[in-house]
Specification:
The structure holds two protein chains of two kinds. By secondary structure, chain A is an all-alpha fold. In chain A, 77% of the residues lie in helices and 0% in strands. Chain A contains twelve helices and no strands. Chain A starts with 6 loop residues before the first helix and ends with a helix. Chain B is elongated and about 75 Å long. Chain B has a six-stranded mixed β-sheet, sandwiched between helices. Chain B has a five-stranded antiparallel β-sheet with strand order 13-12-11-14-20. Chain B contains nine helices and 20 strands. Classes of the chains: A mainly alpha, B alpha+beta.
């Protein structure tokens, strides 16, 4: 088979893209271990000092836990409302189904700032006190569509004959859900949970408008960065990169499982 | 023969966009005896699958009734019907082993624990043996071949001992050889288990080989319902005659009609005699159904029809001749044994018609 286009050209282009994508990340990781209080060269030696500082920095540590708390809440909200919505879209005919299917994507298509402003004025109208929970609610509303679309796509791909077979064999609604629907969508649901978690974790636009007194990690980092890039920020970023890589690997592993399940369709 | 399933003027309409809509099933009446193997046969879109799905309870009829042993079950939910369905795409549960798939129907809540763990295991073993899959119990569906998957699906349907088993083109996704093997398997199971089988297919060979009775469907209606022999030998319409077997229909008019038999005149003036009397008037336009195996070739003057060989195809089991009838009256195919002296391309030939098998279908 002929190679695609001009090989050296393609290779150098690809290298450039990868370089611009990953070099900055690499710089952050390297400087998080640099024994210097400035982010920059020269490299003065290896140290874990900044990680120690990070762990004792109450502001950053507090905001990490706030972020995890919000992200977990967002994932729970997306599953609790997104899974039934996807099943309803797949299985039932109801008035306005077509509109619902399209409009559900709106929050993710709209710029975050618009969603944020809309939610803010909505909450103010309802006299809701801004807090981590309003962030959770706001992000959850916006990110639920990921679960809905992922799970809906999987259900469509599964077709209805497994469900019909189960009903035909005498299964009730719960048994169909427990033994057919849930195992069928498990991997997509898990993937959607990972994506929702990671988007929630670094979301800033909606969060900025809906936050109360407590801040999430991206907000804290942002406020710290306005002064200077401290090594602690690099350490926090490195930790986040490490966690993200782990999540991506888990996600890939899960979606490989999905591929095997999909091939059983016929 | 006691009636198991009866369909009374069953109809199903699908609403399209706007005012459009169409009758998928348009008035089906049918009586299916207990323990019979009945096939709904027809091209795609003829309403056969919709009819089957209404019997199963997956589709709600627009009007009409479904009766089972004389009781109206039209509004009964799927789960209460206790009819099992075998799907074209097998519909196995991919997250379960073969044994778990087969056991599914025994373990549902509505069985109320009627089958203990030991009983479930014994039955699963029994039914896997029945479909020759005894050694595959712990495999997952994706490790099985298409034929094996359909056997699992069969065992899963049969294990709860239903009276009625429904088949929605179950062999449709298998290759030709496997289809033949599975046909024999299904006939065996039907004979051994004495259950009503209602089977949907578009494959007429499959229908002919397996069924006690065939309903040929088209346009949402049953065109003819009868034994394979009736459907094949005595089709009641041009549609059925054309759909089943390799019949060629030649236009003709009734020359003579009486108790002793029937004779029809072709467009070229030649006359064919038929044994079977028919309730037809002299001069009426009919279609003369001539099947390849009911015709034989002879030297000119030795048969009632004449024509010219336009093609010959060596089929291994027989030689198939394509013959254009004299005077452009029509084209027929003739099967001749391979050991017979060959007829050349373009040769003038005569055709002998088996008067016991030739058949007319009404209407122009």
């Amino acid at each position: 088979m002929r190679a695609f286009g001009n090989r050296p050209f393609v290779l150098s282009l690809a290298s450039l893209v990868l370089f611009f994508l990953y070099a900055p990340l690499l710089v952050i990781v390297i400087f998080s271990f640099n024994d210097s209080s400035y982010t920059g060269l020269p490299f003065n030696g290896f140290t874990l000092h900044w990680y120690g500082d990070l762990l004792s920095n109450r502001q950053i540590m507090g905001s990490i836990w706030n972020s995890v708390y919000v992200a977990v809440g967002v994932v729970i909200l997306s599953v609790v409302f997104g899974l039934p919505a996807a099943i309803a879209l797949d299985r039932y005919e109801f008035p306005g189904k077509g509109i619902f299917r399209r409009i559900v994507m709106l929050p993710i298509v709209l710029p975050g700032i618009i969603t944020g402003v809309a939610l803010l004025s909505f909450y103010l109208t309802l006299n809701l006190k801004l807090s981590l929970h309003t962030i959770m609610l706001g992000q959850g509303t916006a990110l639920m569509c990921i679960t809905i679309t992922e799970v809906f796509a999987r259900l469509q791909q599964m077709g209805k004959s497994q469900t019909e077979a189960a009903v035909n064999l005498g299964a009730n609604d719960w048994e169909v859900f427990r033994h057919v629907t849930l195992p069928g969508v498990k991997s997509s649901l898990f993937g959607a949970m990972l994506i929702s978690f990671s988007i929630s974790f670094d979301e800033i636009a909606v969060t900025f408008l809906l936050t109360g007194r407590e801040n999430t990690l991206p907000m804290t980092l942002w406020s710290l960065l306005r002064r200077e890039v401290t090594p602690e920020v690099n350490a926090a970023a490195t930790l986040i990169i490490a966690v993200s890589v782990v999540l991506i690997v888990i996600g890939m592993y899960a979606s490989r499982g999905k591929g095997a399940a999909g091939s059983e369709g016929r | 023969m006691t009636t198991g399933i009866e369909l009374r003027d069953l109809r199903k309409r699908y609403e399209g966009h706007g005012s459009a809509g169409s009758w998928a099933v348009d008035g089906v009446d049918m009586q299916i005896g207990r323990g019979q193997f009945v096939t709904l046969l027809g091209p795609s879109g003829c309403g056969k699958t919709t009819t089957l799905r209404m019997i199963a309870g997956f589709e709600v009829p627009t009007s009409g009734q479904i009766l089972r042993d004389g009781v109206d079950i039209t509004d009964q939910p799927v789960t209460d019907r206790e009819m099992r369905m075998v799907f074209q795409d097998f519909a196995l549960f991919p997250n379960m082993t073969v044994a778990e798939n087969v056991a599914f129907g025994l373990k549902t809540r509505r069985m109320k624990g009627r089958f203990g763990a030991a009983e479930v295991r014994r039955r699963v073993g029994e039914y896997l043996d029945l479909v020759h899959l005894g050694t595959h119990a712990d495999k997952r569906p994706h490790q099985l071949s298409g034929g094996q998957k359909q056997r699992v699906s069969l065992a899963r349907a049969l294990i709860t001992d239903p009276d009625v088993v429904l088949f929605d083109e179950p062999l449709g996704s298998l290759d030709a050889h496997l289809r033949k093997v599975m046909q024999i398997e299904l006939i065996r199971l039907h004979r051994e288990l004495n259950k009503t089988f209602i089977y949907v297919t578009h494959d007429q060979d499959e229908a002919m080989a397996m069924s006690d009775a065939i309903a040929v469907m088209n346009g949402g209606k049953v065109q003819q319902f009868g034994t394979p022999r009736e459907i094949y030998d005595r089709p009641t319409s041009r549609y059925v005659a054309g759909f089943i077997g390799h019949a060629h229909i030649v236009e003709a008019t009734v020359a003579e009609s009486g108790a002793s038999g029937l004779s029809v005149r072709l467009g070229n003036g030649e006359v064919v005699r038929l044994d079977a009397p028919a309730d037809l008037q002299r001069g009426e336009a009919v279609g003369l159904m001539l099947r390849a195996e009911d015709l034989s070739l002879a030297k000119p003057g030795e048969g009632e029809l004449h024509g010219q060989v336009s093609d010959s195809l060596y089929r291994g089991e027989y030689v198939e001749y394509v013959v254009d009838l004299k005077g452009g009256a029509g084209t027929v195919h003739v099967h001749e044994p391979t050991h017979a002296a060959p007829f050349a391309h373009g040769a003038d030939v005569a055709l002998k018609v088996n008067p016991a098998k030739a058949h007319v279908v009404g209407g122009a």
